[in-house]
Design brief:
Blueprint: H1 2-8, E1 13-16, H2 31-56, E2 63-67, H3 71-74, H4 80-100, E3 106-110, H5 118-122, E4 198-200, E5 207-209, E6 211-214, H6 227-239, E7 244-246, H7 255-264, E8 273-278, E9 280-284, E10 292-293, E11 298-301, E12 304-308, H8 312-326, E13 333-337, H9 343-359, E14 365-370, H10 374-382, E15 387-391, H11 405-412, E16 415-419, E17 435-436, E18 439-440, H12 443-458, H13 463-472, E19 477-483, H14 487-497, H15 503-511
Parallel strand pairs: 1-2, 2-3, 6-7, 6-19, 7-8, 8-13, 13-14, 14-15, 15-16, 16-19
Antiparallel strand pairs: 4-5, 9-12, 10-11, 17-18
Helix pairs in contact: 2-4, 6-7, 6-14, 8-9, 10-11, 13-14
Length: 529
């Protein structure tokens, strides 16, 4: 080790790859054989890691990758000794990851499977032909409709993937956004039969409808909404084919979650996808506190205060509290919510906690949701999130996400949900009192929005339809999240989303320099004849 460090000028990554095989049941291998294989496969990794750690602590990019095996979890017959050592490697990796995370050393393992090769075929003792959990491994796609994760790795609590996934999005399943070309094929969706089509988030198996429902409005965003109006809004979303619903404790200090849970409780649970967020715990302020929550944007009594907490314990407490408010037994997606000023805790504590919950099957997909693109790009590049929710940074007025976030997501196979397609109102109804990013729109942006509206109307469409179609056209985008506070608003969103925007509209925006040249735009459907 010392010689390698001297020759290389330092050490950044240790690949712990030494290992030997063993065949037979627990009765077939002698004690000496057990000691020999354990000494190489487990103790050998310990010795190597022990020698490497002093040098790795000096690196800004330190990592240890232990070679494990599918035998650690698959229960291969005639492999008792080998499986035992690889199970030990898996547990060793998890313990090392917890021990050395705060030192800046990431520890992960890879779990390769067995494969039929000429060498194994010629072996005097061939590998088992049918392990208890299926046939010998061959490169193949996961079963249609499977929601089980297909990582060839052990769960990682380190905030980094064990093996970075360079997959692409699965085919957009029946995505029928009018005015856009759709990818053919793909497994049959397990969501309810809506009219909007679905996409799968990264490699998670979690499906979302192409248009999704943001529940901040029914949490009394800016103005109060009655319970009845909130339930009618969710009912209209369901009737319109929306099957992905997003909420958060922040929205109305829990009111949005309670209302959304009530509205969805009688719906078939397998037919919709639900996301909530962590990072803000709600603590009671006391019965006599009085006041309202309008300082944070919600017309509700200030019965609770928000406490920032992206720790592992905070993540678990947040999910448990959300499930109680929702009145449901699970959520499908959990986002780290607005960790702008809490980056280190979010990356080093909150994200690993979510990754652990995903590996345990508590949640199906994990990610981060923010109003900026820069930190979301870091999540995409440096972690194993399935999805990021980017609000307001990829719209007809703001193209910030196009610079790095969307290309990185497309390269990594990470899905993007775009929120704030109307920039909080300006692109829905541009007028002097309109809001942009939850504040009064600047005159320059109002003028630009009015120009966009004029061009849209001249081409026989609406600005609202164009605002929803634009982000949906990017291949990294799985869903466009639209907030609504009434049944009328939801029905209008569905109508606009399924309206074909003329190709000449996009051409004129490019010519007028209102869209970047590299921004994807919807492709008209091809005439089947």
């Amino acid at each position: 080790m010392a010689a390698a460090v001297t020759d290389l000028g330092g050490l950044d990554v240790l690949i712990n790859n030494a290992g030997i095989g063993a065949q037979g049941t627990v009765e077939d291998n002698t004690d000496d054989e057990w000691h020999r294989v354990l000494d190489v496969n487990v103790v050998g990794m310990v010795r190597t890691a022990r020698a490497a750690l002093p040098h790795l602590r000096e690196s800004a990019h330190a990592a240890i990758v232990n070679t494990c095996s599918i035998a650690a979890t698959a229960g291969l017959p005639q492999r008792a000794l080998y499986s035992a050592t690889k199970g030990a490697v898996l547990s060793l990796t998890l313990a090392m990851a917890a021990d050395h995370l705060r030192e800046g050393v990431r520890v992960n393992c890879v779990n390769p499977g067995t494969a039929d090769t000429p060498g194994s075929a010629a072996s005097s003792t061939p590998p088992p032909t049918r392990p208890p959990n299926g046939p010998p491994w061959r490169p193949a796609s996961p079963p249609a409709g499977s929601s089980r994760r297909t990582r060839s790795q052990a769960p990682s609590p380190t905030g980094e993937p064990a093996v970075r996934r360079h997959h692409r999005h699965r085919a957009r399943r029946g995505r029928r956004h009018a005015g856009t070309a759709t990818a053919a094929g793909g497994p049959v969706s397990t969501l309810g039969r809506g009219t909007l089509g679905t996409a799968t988030l990264g490699n998670s198996g979690v499906e979302v409808s192409a248009l999704s429902f943001g529940a901040a409005g029914i949490g009394n965003l800016f103005t109060a909404v009655s319970d009845e109006q909130a339930y009618e809004t969710v009912d209209a979303a369901w009737s319109g084919g929306i099957r992905y619903f997003d909420t958060a404790p922040h929205y109305g200090i829990g009111l949005s979650e309670r209302r959304l849970g009530t509205a969805l409780r009688d719906r078939p649970r397998a037919e919709y996808t639900l996301s909530t967020k962590v990072g803000r715990l709600l603590e009671p302020t006391g019965a006599d506190a009085g006041g309202d929550d309008l300082a944070d944007g919600f017309a509700v009594p200030a019965t609770h205060r928000r406490v920032w907490d992206f720790s592992a314990e905070g993540v678990r407490r947040g999910i448990e509290a959300s499930l109680e408010r929702l009145g449901l037994d699970r959520v499908d997606i959990v986002y780290l919510h607005d960790p702008d000023d809490h980056a280190e805790q979010a990356f080093h504590e909150g994200y690993p906690a979510l990754e652990r919950l995903r590996s345990e099957g508590v949640v199906g997909a994990i990610g981060a949701g923010m109003n900026q693109a820069e930190m979301l790009t870091r999540f995409v590049r440096d972690t194993d999130v399935d999805v990021v929710l980017c609000a307001g940074r990829y719209t007809l007025l703001d193209h910030d996400a196009l610079t790095e976030l969307l290309p990185a997501a497309q390269e990594r196979g990470t899905s993007v949900v775009i929120g704030g397609a109307f920039n909080s109102g300006l692109l829905a109804d541009p007028r002097p009192a309109a809001t942009y990013n939850y504040a009064t729109a600047p005159a320059e942006l109002l003028d630009r929005a009015l120009r966009l509206k004029e061009i849209a109307e001249r081409h026989g469409t609406t600005l609202r339809a164009a605002a929803l179609a634009f982000p949906a056209a990017h291949p990294a985008v799985a869903s466009v999240l639209a907030g609504a506070r009434s049944a009328h608003e939801v029905r209008d969103c569905v109508e606009q989303f399924t309206t074909q925007v003329p190709e000449d509209f996009w051409r004129e925006l490019r010519e007028a320099k209102l869209l970047p040249e590299d921004a994807p735009v919807p492709v008209p459907p091809q005439d089947p004849s």
